[in-house]
Structures are given as structure tokens and as C-alpha cells.
Amino acid sequence: MTPLAERLRPQNLDEYIGQQHLVGPGAVLRNMVDSGHITSFILWGPPGVGKTTLAKIIAKRLDVPFYILSAVNSGVKDVREAIDKARRNHYFGSQSPILFIDEIHRFSKSQQDALLAAVETGEVTLIGATTENPSFEVIRPLLSRCQVYLLHSLSADDLQLLANRAINHDTYLVQRHPEIKESEALLRYSGGDARKLLNILDLIAAATPENAPLLVTNEIVVKLLRENPATYDKKGESHYDVISAFIKSIRGSDPDAATYWLARMVEGGEDPQFIARRLVISAAEDIGLANPNALLLANAAFDAVSRIGWPEARIPLAEATIYLATSPKSNSAYLAINAAIEEVKQNPNVPVPLHLRNAPTQLMAQLGYSDGYLYPHDYPNHFVDQQYLPDEIKNHRFWIPADNDHERTATRRLQFFHNENPT
């Protein structure tokens, strides 16, 4: 029998559950679809939140040719063949055929390069789906030609609506007279994943005799899932829960817990580069300036696992994990860039002071560009006191040093340069 998740797949935006920030009344994707024209975009979000379904609904609504490629089993040849088909089916003045690429983060650089020209010329409209951050996984030229839309895990209300729709509208389930007496466990184990919720309902239906009431209770859900244990699900809820516990254990300076969560991911076959990327982020965000060598070691681990893969990758990952967990911690750089970005958002067009601008032409020199700039290397200690921020924010401070040896030393050096009393 066709799985419940496929039987219940929405056919239009009104049936689509969740992601109202994208498809609700007046939302960006809804407006594009209603206008009859869409541009290339990438849907980024966890599994089971409707990425593939949304792409299919859009193609059906626009009534355009729709081609699907999976990055898992498609090569450059498949990409070019799909583009050729789309080119033959593209009629002047009409919406371009849609090329949907599932798990686009798994495409190699050469595969992504093969897409560029067709996307840029509008021969195809690309819709990509990914569970990974496109900033890391999609090449910059392709990313610049696509909008990125973030999809969220489904809320408890969304999941409850989906469960009610399943028991009230699915032809097979309706014949079994189902009843949801308790939904807490069903929603909890679904973890914001629509497919997982529907698979649990499928499991309950399969485990319930045809002549018995089809009931959903907390006890039934827990019992069935314990009898059908999913170990580490690198595409589902565990993927996000375990990596969260891993990073929080590093941040909390607990090397034993961090190593344990690392082992969970190793045994589950998690992508070692995914783990290594998170170590690089943790080194910059959580250890930061308290131990700048942490970022170097994390980058070295990333390079190592990129070359060797499993099972040996566990060793540099463990080394980096323990080093980060036992390092002093500081998030001052993280807070500084966030504060600076917030200032830029509030005042995006503050002019660069003239003395900080280059003057490559005579006209620019006549206008005062670079006039008055003091070259620090011409002064003692390679420092001269001058203003680098625009006048409007010249007294703002974005970096607030944390209390650790490295940042205390940096603070004393700056105080000395500015003729303040060292502390």
C-alpha cells in the first residue's frame, strides 16, 4: 500500500500545512505563485517540513514542465539532459520549466557549475531543497542567482492539524474508524516532521488488528516506537537534537559529554564534514578570542576529515572536540559582529570618512579623498591615534572584551596605545 505520507500529500497551497510566512496570504511565495511567475530559489529546512511538496504544488499551479533530480544519484550528465529537455519545452514568454533538485547540498561543484548558465539565462527555474546551510554547500555564483527561503519545523498545532486530517480524510484510515485519544507522544516523537508523524500513524494502523479499534494514545505510540527503535537518524530529529547536545556540551566545558555525543554521531554514520563545520563555528563563537588557536585546530580537523573520511575521521574530530571543550570560553567576537550588524541595519548608509578613502584619481584627491590619513607604520609601536569610525557613531563600542588572559592582554595593549592607564 502507498505510504500515508504520499496518500496525504497536499495538492495545492490551501491544503499545505505550515510555512505560513512563505505561503500564507500576502507572503512572498504565495504572491509569486499568484502572479504566475517565480524566480529561482532554494528551500532550506529540516526534513519533513514540505520542501518537495511545495515545489510540486508550485509547478502544478503554474502548469509548467517539472523535472526532478536527486543529488544522491544524479551526475553532470543527468543535469545537462534535464536542462536540454527543459530548453526544448520552454516557449517564448512563458514561465520557464522548473528543475527541482532534492538535496542540492550533495551536488559537487562541477554539477552546480553545469546549472549556472541555464539558471542565469532563465532557460530553467531552479528550485533546490536542502537540509544544510546553503552558504556552506552551494557555490557562490549559483547562490547569488537564487533566493533562499527558510522553512521551519512544524509546530504542535500544525502537526495536530495534520493528524486530524489524516484520520478524517484518508480513505483507508477512515474505514478503520480511528480516534486520537492522546496526542502528546505522537507530536513529541514527530519532532516537527510531518512525514515522521504520518509514518507513526501508518505504524499504528499496521500493528492494530483489522477488527480492533484504531486508537492513538501515548502508551501505544511509546510502546510501538520502542519496539521499532530508530538509532541515530541522520536525516531526522536526532540529527538536530544530538548536534545541539554536542555543541552545548563543548560550550559548557564538558569533554566527556561532548565525546559521548560525538560517538553517537560517529556510530550513526553522520557526515563527518557536517560535524567538522560545527566545530569550526563553535571555535569562533564559543571559544573565540579566549583561545584563538581553537579556530586553527578546528579548521585543521575540517581539512583532515575532508581527506580521510570514516572511520579514521573520528580521531581528529575527537581531538578537536576535547580541545574545544577544555579551552577557555569567550563569545565577545560573536557579540561584537552581531552588534555591528544591528548598527548597520539601523543606519545602512553612513558615509566613509574622507581620510579613510583611497584616492586613485586626481579628481578624488582634489575632493579630499585620503586627505589627512595617518599611516600607522610611520609612528612608534606602529600606532597613531586617529578616527576610524564615521562621525555619527565615532564613540560606539562593539567589541566588549571578556574576562580571560588573551583579551585582558589585548585590552591592556589598546589602553597603552591610547595613553590610558593599563589595568
Rg, please?
A: 27 Å
Shape descriptor: globular
End-to-end Cα distance, whole Å, is 74 Å
Average predicted confidence as pLDDT = 86
CATH architecture of the largest domain: 3-Layer(aba) Sandwich
CATH class identity of the largest domain: Alpha Beta
SSE arrangement, N to C: HHHEHEHEHEHHEHHEHHEHHHHHHHHH
> Total helix count?
21
Largest sheet: 5 strands, parallel
Give the fraction of residues assigned to helices: 40-55%
Q: How many domains comprise the coordinates?
A: 4
CATH homologous superfamily caption of the largest domain? P-loop containing nucleotide triphosphate hydrolases
Strand content: 5-15%
Set out the fold topology:
Blueprint: H1 4-7, H2 20-23, H3 28-35, E1 41-44, H4 51-62, E2 66-70, H5 76-88, E3 98-102, H6 109-121, E4 125-130, H7 134-137, H8 140-143, E5 147-150, H9 156-169, H10 171-175, E6 179-180, H11 184-190, H12 194-207, E7 215-216, H13 218-227, H14 237-251, H15 255-267, H16 272-287, H17 293-308, H18 314-325, H19 332-346, H20 362-366, H21 405-417
Parallel strand pairs: 1-4, 1-5, 2-3, 3-4, 6-7
